[in-house]
Amino acid sequence: MPQSVDARAEKKPSRIQLRNRRKILEAALDVFSQHGFRGATLDQIAEAAGLSKPNMLYYFDNKEAIHVELLSALMAEWLAPLEVMDPDGEPLEELLGYIRRKMQMSRTYPRESRLFANEIIQGAPRIGPDLNQRLKPLFDEKCALIRIWMQAGKLTPMDPGHLIFSIWAITQHYADFEAQVQVLMPDSAVAWDTAMQHVETMFRTLLSAE
Amino acid sequence: MPQSVDARAEKKPSRIQLRNRRKILEAALDVFSQHGFRGATLDQIAEAAGLSKPNMLYYFDNKEAIHVELLSALMAEWLAPLEVMDPDGEPLEELLGYIRRKMQMSRTYPRESRLFANEIIQGAPRIGPDLNQRLKPLFDEKCALIRIWMQAGKLTPMDPGHLIFSIWAITQHYADFEAQVQVLMPDSAVAWDTAMQHVETMFRTLLSAE
DNA sequence: GATGTTTTTTACCATTTGGTCAAGCCACGA
DNA sequence: TCGTGGCTTGACCAAATGGTAAAAAACATC
């Protein structure tokens, strides 16, 4: 009996499969993050991956499968900085550490940031379920934690949810709107350093105001 | 001699032209803001506008012309809240007023916000020149103004450019990432009100820290 | 080196998409 | 009411796009 598509997904993948799937996902990250789902073409992705289009479709059933797998695989990585935040740590330093990690992510993985940004802007049509099942619980958990910290007088009291939104908005801004930042601050080499300093100082001021 | 395309652009447009061009741009705003440039199709726009595709292409030379005109026409409207900021006003109130107007814009015109977001995320391939010629001067001017205010001890000193980025990032976040916000704060009716309060309080704290 | 399996390629297809063209419609002034 | 010129339409087209089928090639295993 020939190996079916389902079997392929369940059995342990060969070395070639591993390599090619990784090449495809890497190429897809490039193309999807730049053009969004509908704007990306299979030909573009295949060329970027160095494979023929049918060869690529041997590894993924269709365009959407590539996109979904990419988002799904990246989600964990993307949430990691928030997960790390420790209930037993020093509140202000925990939050500032999170902010620093988030800035570092935007700097190191701007494509990933833009991939998610594209998907969310367009209404999260393919990642919607994941948002509910993976992001929401984590968000609620950390909101509760921050609220406790604030009630203990360790942080300036405010709405924890909107605080997290602010952190996301600002940190991701530098990755998602890089084109604009570069126009307005052409001296981009130093922009990242000043940006990181600004963001940290800003939230430190905000969170430790009496 | 029949009226040429160029003449059409220069002569004063008829009532029908005005009406149809507006219908097209309105429809294009809907479609482009949801799918980005490459993801939007002329058929979608034409249907949303209630016109046939050839009829639409009678008013605009091609897809790109619609997109460019849309962005260009909206740019002024988009920059207005920043332009209003008055050098002779009370610094803190001027900035908070700007922030309030920007939040109001995101609330009232989320499609416009997403239209720009899509374009910038994808590297601003079509609006690049406009950023340099229209946004950059205004940005520099207001940065200088804020710097003067800070040097006069009226505001907490910080990098004015990054301050503006922070304002943009947070205010636009609620429009651009609305899908995510709605998942994480399902009680969306009140989310806007609490958001506006949070953002204002946040920047007031930040800007008036000693 | 024969044999079964996985991987790759070649050729192809249906649909979608951006765009054209010529003919017809219609509003409006003479 | 009759042209005339702006407006609209239906039919059409070439290229791009997502995807398939089947044969060929490469590979692993004996």
Textual characterization of the structure:
The structure is a homodimer of 210-residue chains. Chain A is mainly α and 210 residues long. Chain A has 2 domains: 1-60, Arc Repressor Mutant, subunit A (Orthogonal Bundle); 68-207, Tetracycline Repressor, domain 2 (Orthogonal Bundle), CATH 1.10.357. In chain A, 79% of the residues lie in helices and 0% in strands. The first copy, chain A, contains 11 helices and no strands. Mean pLDDT of chain A is 91; it is low at 1-10. At the A-B interface, helix 2, helix 7, helix 8, helix 9 and helix 10 of A face helix 2, helix 7, helix 8, helix 9 and helix 10 of B. The structure holds a DNA duplex (30 and 30 nucleotides).
Topology overview:
The structure is a homodimer of 210-residue chains.
Chain A: H1 5-10, H2 15-39, H3 42-49, H4 53-59, H5 63-83, H6 91-108, H7 110-121, H8 128-151, H9 160-176, H10 178-184, H11 188-207
Helix pairs in contact in A: 2-3, 2-5, 2-7, 5-8, 6-9, 6-11, 7-9
Chain B binds a DNA duplex (30 and 30 nucleotides) through helix 2 and helix 4.
Which features characterize this protein?
homodimer, 210 residues, mainly alpha, Arc Repressor Mutant, subunit A, Tetracycline Repressor, domain 2, 2 domains, 11 helices, 79% helix, disordered N terminus, DNA-binding
What proportion strand of chain A?
A: under 5%
Distance between the terminal alpha carbons of chain A, to the nearest Å?
Answer: 71 Å
Largest sheet of chain A: none
C-alpha geometry of chain A: globular
- The helix content of chain A is over 70%
Biggest interface pair, counts: A-B, 52 and 52 residues
Radius of gyration of chain A: 20 Å
Q: Total helix count of chain A?
A: 11
Give me the CATH fold name of the largest domain in chain A. Answer: Tetracycline Repressor, domain 2
Instruction: Report the mean per-residue pLDDT of chain A as an integer.
Output: 91
Unreliable stretches of chain A (pLDDT < 50, length at least 5) are 1-10
Overall SS class of chain A: mainly alpha
CATH architecture annotation name of the largest domain in chain A: Orthogonal Bundle
**Count of DSSP strands of chain A:** 0
CATH class of the largest domain in chain A: Mainly Alpha
Helices and strands of chain A, in order, run as HHHHHHHHHHH
When the domains of chain A are counted, the total is 2
Indicate the multimeric state. homodimer
